[in-house]
Design a protein that fits this description.
Blueprint lengths: L2 H9 L15 H7 L4 H6 L2 H15 L3 E4 L6 H4 L5 E2 L8 E2 L22 H17 L4 E7 L1 H9 L1 H10 L1 H25 L3 E5 L8 H18 L6 E6 L17 E4 L5 H8 L4 E6 L1 H6 L3 H15 L5 E5 L9 H12 L7
Parallel strand pairs: 1-4, 4-5, 5-6, 6-7, 7-8, 8-9
Antiparallel strand pairs: 2-3
Length: 344
Amino acid sequence: MTNKEILLSAIRLQKTPRVPVIKLAGGVWLYERHGLSLQDVLDMPPAQYADLMLRDNEELGMDLIWTGAGLNHVLLRTIGAKVTFDKVGAASTVEEPMISSAEDLDKIKSPSLENDPGIANLLEATRILSERVGNEVLIGVSQWGPFSLAGLMMGLEKFMVYIMRDKAGTERILAFTQELVEKYLELFREAGVGLVNFSEPSASMISPKMFQDLAMPCIRKTNDAFRDKGVARMLHICGNTTKLLDLIPETGTDLFSFDYKVDLAAAKEKLGGKVAFAGNIDPVGVIFEGTKEDVAKAAENCLRIAGETPGYVLMPGCDIPPKTRIENVKAMASVAHRAIDGKL
């Protein structure tokens, strides 16, 4: 089986010859190693960017190549946000809130996402990746989820207060961000990706009831939009999502990625046989601060806990820090590649 077939089989809850292994985005980490800022990457000729991604994956041996990794904020730029991309080794930042209420959405012009020069470059690079390795390795793209994107537009603290005060306004903002995320992911699907992911880091900060009432309908609507379009659907939520595990199958996602704060055995119990699940090596305490032996030990422990459960994918619990040693990331991949039928 190809790398692509192994990962897709796991996502479909089918038996695989070995455990699939992926990282979560890892864009800033990759660009840091080459002395590149996010703006450098956005300005890079598409063929050069595709080569960078291919060389990286050849060295690591992952089952998924992320296109546009670390560049989620480019979507905010298309609607007028002031975003900084120019520091090597740093994530992009939104300089100031865009909105203070739903009424401010009226001031935002409907964006033509593909006309943004950075997005246009990423789309062309994705086409190149798809043509060169799309049959062997799955290509994925990630974007903020609707709930987290709304928090970035307003400022997370202000948004958390706003949702308690104006339900109708909150629903209008979330409808706007859901449509924006869907448009972005659709462009990359058309360019050749086989997996669409959205990250909802803010979702672990709210109660299960609020998640069910506000965040989940948008997640489900986005997933439903891609249900019959031949792509796998992935969801990542940072932090301790143990309280949300029972709700994950209802989101319509095919693969749920969770942080190291979630007990892997608990996730296996709640999700096994229902939804493919991925995680959950500590990206800081183990992958960044540990030795390659520490990483291998943690990866082996994940495999022992997950066992032969169909649908398990080995990966860090979140994005890895920019200064992480490449040997540590390779150690994680190596464990997966020598695990036959889920056993070491």
